[in-house]
Design brief:
This protein has five helices and 16 strands. It has 239 residues and is of the alpha+beta class. It has one domain: CNF1/YfiH-like putative cysteine hydrolases (4-Layer Sandwich). A hairpin with a 4-residue loop joins strand 9 and strand 10. The longest helix has 13 residues. It is globular and about 50 Å long.
């Protein structure tokens, strides 16, 4: 049987979350894969579709928020992350090597989801989402649970000095997560995102070890398959 998704936060009762595999991918962005929506019982619920730009804007979605609607779904321009306390609203992001970072506070009943590529990671998008949860919804960092999805790992994320420099400007400790080989750097985006969140006091962080580039049979990888339009989906809803 084909594996369409990897479950996320399986043991939590009040949320449904998943990260799709290549088999469960959408042909393009935004994420539209009816088989996965039906499997997760999300097909009848409104979706939030951010138009991702590899930035660090995190949208705050509350009951009185005003956003553009299209066929019952929320469309968020120039957005790579979302935080909300609203139930029955499916947060979505799309991925083909970049990380999905899932947030859940079971005490204040808040969820968050961000698309963290190297640019977003260097611009602290995960930290920004967590700070929104803390400031807007009074989340205690010790209550926030985080899951970092499959994504390109340090074994395959080879970059030039300009990318490494972008991380050094943001993080004094960036070199702890970079291995230099010749004039190239191999960066660990998963650990960099984890470190951002740990410095806020978040301790409950799970990292999926799978590298999307190494396992392009199971996952979409833009680096392994340049030009591919297929996108895996990260999905999250509070019920």
């Amino acid at each position: 049987m084909k594996q369409l998704i990897k479950p996320v936060f399986q043991n939590e009762k009040n949320i449904i979350c998943a990260f799709s595999t290549k088999e469960g991918a959408s042909d393009k962005s935004p994420y539209e894969q009816e088989a996965v929506f039906q499997m997760l019982q999300m097909n009848h619920l409104p979706k939030v579709y951010p138009k991702q730009v590899h930035g660090n804007h995190v949208a705050l979605i509350k009951k009185d928020s005003s956003f553009h609607m299209n066929q019952g779904n929320l469309i968020l321009p120039d957005t790579d992350g979302m935080v909300t306390n609203q139930k029955q609203l499916v947060l979505t992001t799309v991925h083909a090597d970049c990380l999905a970072v899932f947030f859940y506070d079971p005490i204040q009943h808040v969820i968050g989801l961000v698309h963290a590529g190297w640019r977003g990671s260097a611009q602290k998008i995960a930290e920004k989402a967590a700070i929104l949860m803390i400031n807007e919804f009074q989340s205690n960092p010790s209550d926030i649970k985080v899951f970092i999805s499959p994504g390109i790992s340090s074994c395959c994320f080879e970059t030039g000095v300009e990318v490494f420099d972008a991380f050094q400007k943001s993080f004094s400790w960036a070199s702890d997560y970079a291995e230099k080989k010749g004039d190239k750097y191999f960066l660990d985006l998963k650990k960099i995102n984890e470190r951002q969140l740990m410095e806020l006091g978040i301790k409950d962080i799970t990292i999926d070890p799978d590298c999307t580039c190494c396992h392009s049979d199971l996952y979409c990888s833009y680096r392994k398959e340049p030009g591919t339009t297929k996108r895996m989906g990260a999905l999250m809803v509070m019920v």
